[in-house]
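A quick word before the example. In earlier lectures we treated sequence and structure as two separate objects. From today on, think of them as two lines of the same record. Here is Alpha/beta hydrolase written that way.
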Amino acid sequence: MSEWVRYKYATVQGLSVFYREAGSPSNPALVLLHGFPSSSHMFRELLPLLADRFYLIAPDYPGFGYSNMPSISDFSYTFEQFSLIIEQLLDQLSIPKFILYCHDYGGPVGFRLAVRHPHRVRGFIIQNSVVNFEGLGTPFDVFKALWKHPDARTQQEFAATVTSFDFTKKQYFTGACYPERVSPDGPYMDQMFLNRPGNQEIQVALGYDYRKNVEQYPIWQQYLRTYQPPVLVVWGRNDFIFTLKGAEFFERELKCVATHLLCGGHFVLEEASYVTAMLIKNFFDSTCTDVFNTKLEFPVR
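And the structure line, produced from the sequence above:
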């Protein structure tokens, strides 16, 4: 039964936070942090494949998926706040140490958590998420315009672009090597949540806050150089949102790192969940990081 996915809710900061759970709590914990515009739904095929070796927690951020969606006047939609929500959820679940799986928006959430608690992080899986400015692709032009002039016009342009169904579908299908493997459920489900009244304002707030992630890049880079966590990079090589320079940074700066450029786009798990699961198991059973047989310890700052 440990391979079954369980669907649960927890109350964090007064909000109902949805998360998917699989595997035994006696296994190493792996926390899966989703990207935009998705939710824990993006990990639906991966979770059962990893449940025999890991204890898996895949939450939805507030405003995404099945978690509560308070208005922007009632909740601070920032990546810092998301990271605090995840931290408090893990504390509630009594998970002291964990591996972080970071996709897209999951990177800014995960690296904030890691910088605050470096001794709790046993490693990373990076799927198309960056810690360097060179990793930002052309779609970030609309973000940069918002950062420069956050007026009503640029906010409207940002919302019209990033919350459109055309852009949602593009994220799933552009660069896909086997588009027939990409289920239409993902983009349609994501768009359903994006279309909720008030959600455009939430996405604008997060888009503007993303500038603070860029400001944090030097801090995250220094964290990686100092603590040298094991990092597995599993990257959709045809991604149009993040460039390959984002993937190359980890390979260049870290000692215990493996990079796999998979044939696919931004949501490469739609095509390669099985391959990704095998790569994760092999990496975390390797000589530089064996979470199955040893306890990794990192110095406390």
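Notice the following. Residues 296-301 have pLDDT under 50 and may be disordered. We will return to this example when we discuss secondary structure assignment.
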